[in-house]
């Protein structure tokens, strides 16, 4: 990917409807800024266009009297070649926070595989890689169950070289092992969260992490929303500090495709709680053409419309908010699609009795655990002409086979759309688990390695681990 594809720029103005059209039309920041400059002053400072794919100096927008909110192209590891890398000690922050079973075997190696392109690039160019990561949330210092040992064999296999490991991430143990490294080798450091200073972003700990390296690469997208020593603090003590290939790819999809999408652009938001997705829905309303809601959160919207929902999941204190979101969608001209029927259960269990009913006919004592059959068709119809789809949160309790139909149907249809050229982005967490469970992981355009990080990006937040990197 060209480094310039990381260009992240915020330009300005225009009423929202005009922005939409402009988003489709404008291909380069310079054009966007030119158009922005033509907007009346009262409409300026409204619109953020990110990830437009050509380089542009920051002063260019300012020179046209426009407020510049963000203008940052992050420097990429791909900008560094053998000259800069050979023999250098490179501290790479990856997210190797993988799920382990009781015997400490990796049950899903997605994050290990995702780290490989950057590591391979660095070792192929003769760098000495000091690889750092967290695993879980250890509270009491070093504990065997949180050691990164299980990663070593899988990573060695994927890289085709023998990865060595030390039982610490700072200090003389690391210093000695690093001094003995050959060019093109990888030394895995132990869980950086064995030090409580890590999550406090403690400057002296950051300095110690940096002490054994010459330069820094952040490829830990899943942890980029944390301002920790290994993701943010360390950048104050090393130079250059650049983005790894995974981080770039995640930003390109989650920020790029979402900010500058092929249209129609649809967001599917499901999952259990309205409260955790409010800001995502609000933020997406200014970008999408359609929004489809599913999962447990729809019952709060039904109740807000005055419908009875039986024993379904409802956030009583979010009823006003649900009404407000529907109104905002209408005001923004966004098609707001709620399921018209639901699959209900007489208890929250895999072996519950189930039936399909209209959304306004849920009997007392029953709860909605999936979208209904009619709604699956409605959702597919709404998606059929879409060119970009972002999906966050399952359509139902997909963990129970009986109530996985809506989620599976959406995953299968998205796979079909992807094959037809639609960009499909699955935003982390349970949605990814659902897609993988349906065996469709490889059929989507992009599956994010970060749940929390992808949500924060969709909410429009700045990720500290990204912000701290050098601009190109
Ligand atoms: N109708 C429903 N009632 C209760 N829980 C639901 C319902 N639909 C989905 N869920 C649950 O929502 C959870 C996922 O929600 P969430 O964490 O918001 O999604 P994600 O992790 O994809 O962001 C799943 O465990 C799923 O079982
Ligand atoms: O698994 C992670 O995040 P996710 O569950 O939001 O995808 C990351 O490794 C971050 O871990 P953290 O939430 O303990 O900081």
From TrEMBL:
Binding site for (2R)-3-phosphoglycerate: 111, 193, 226
Chain positions recorded as ATP binding sites: 277, 368, 399, 428-431
Catalysed reactions, as listed in the record: (2R)-3-phosphoglycerate + ATP = (2R)-3-phospho-glyceroyl phosphate + ADP
Pathway membership, UniProt: Carbohydrate biosynthesis; Calvin cycle
Keyword Nucleotide-binding: yes
SUPFAM superfamilies attached to this UniProt entry: Phosphoglycerate kinase (SSF53748)
Places the protein is found: Plastid, Chloroplast
Entry cofactors: Mg(2+)
EC number: 2.7.2.3
GO molecular function: ADP binding; ATP binding; phosphoglycerate kinase activity
Family designation: Belongs to the phosphoglycerate kinase family.
Protein name: Phosphoglycerate kinase
Organism: Ostreobium quekettii
């Amino acid at each position: 990917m060209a480094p310039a594809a990381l260009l992240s720029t915020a330009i300005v103005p225009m009423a929202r409807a005009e922005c939409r059209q402009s988003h489709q039309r404008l291909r380069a920041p310079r054009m966007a800024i030119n158009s922005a400059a033509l907007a009346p002053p009262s409409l300026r400072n409204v619109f953020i266009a990110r990830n437009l794919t050509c380089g542009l100096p920051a002063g260019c927008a300012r020179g046209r009297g426009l407020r510049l909110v963000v203008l940052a192209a992050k420097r990429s590891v791909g900008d560094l070649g053998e000259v800069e890398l050979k023999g250098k000690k490179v501290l790479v922050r990856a997210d190797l926070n993988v799920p382990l079973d009781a015997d400490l075997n990796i049950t899903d190696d997605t994050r290990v595989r995702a780290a490989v392109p950057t590591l391979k690039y660095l070792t192929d160019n003769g760098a000495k890689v000091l690889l750092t990561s967290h695993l879980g949330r250890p509270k009491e210092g070093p504990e065997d169950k949180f050691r990164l040992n299980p990663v070593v064999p899988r990573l060695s296999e994927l890289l085709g070289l023998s990865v060595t490991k030390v039982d610490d991430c700072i200090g003389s143990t690391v210093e000695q092992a690093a001094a003995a490294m050959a060019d093109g080798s990888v030394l895995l450091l132990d869980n950086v969260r064995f030090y409580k200073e890590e999550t406090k972003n403690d400057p002296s700990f950051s300095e110690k992490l940096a002490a054994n390296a010459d330069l820094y690469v952040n490829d830990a997208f899943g942890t980029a929303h944390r301002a920790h020593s290994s993701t943010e603090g360390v950048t104050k003590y090393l130079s250059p500090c650049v983005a790894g290939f995974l981080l770039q790819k995640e930003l390109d999809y989650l920020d790029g495709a979402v900010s500058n999408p092929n249209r129609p652009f649809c967001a599917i938001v499901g999952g259990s709680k309205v409260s955790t997705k409010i800001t995502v829905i609000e933020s997406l309303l200014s970008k999408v053409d359609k929004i489809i809601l599913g999962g447990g959160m729809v019952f709060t919207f039904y109740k807000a419309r005055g419908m009875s929902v039986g024993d379904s999941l409802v956030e009583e204190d979010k009823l006003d908010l649900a009404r407000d979101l529907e109104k905002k969608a209408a005001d923004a001209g966004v098609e707001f699609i709620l399921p018209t029927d639901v699959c209900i259960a007489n208890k929250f269990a895999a072996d519950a009795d189930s039936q399909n009913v209209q959304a306004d006919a849920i009997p007392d004592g029953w709860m909605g655990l999936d979208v209904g059959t009619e709604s699956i068709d409605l959702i597919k119809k709404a998606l059929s002409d879409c060119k970009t789809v972002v999906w966050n949160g399952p359509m139902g309790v997909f963990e129970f086979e009986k109530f996985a139909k809506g989620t599976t149907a959406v995953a299968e249809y998205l796979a079909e759309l992807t094959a037809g050229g639609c960009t499909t982005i699955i935003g982390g967490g349970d949605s990814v688990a659902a897609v993988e469970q349906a065996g469709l992981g490889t059929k989507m355009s992009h599956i994010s390695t970060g749940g929390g990080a992808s949500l924060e990006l969709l909410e429009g937040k700045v990720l500290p681990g990204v912000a701290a990197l050098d601009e190109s």
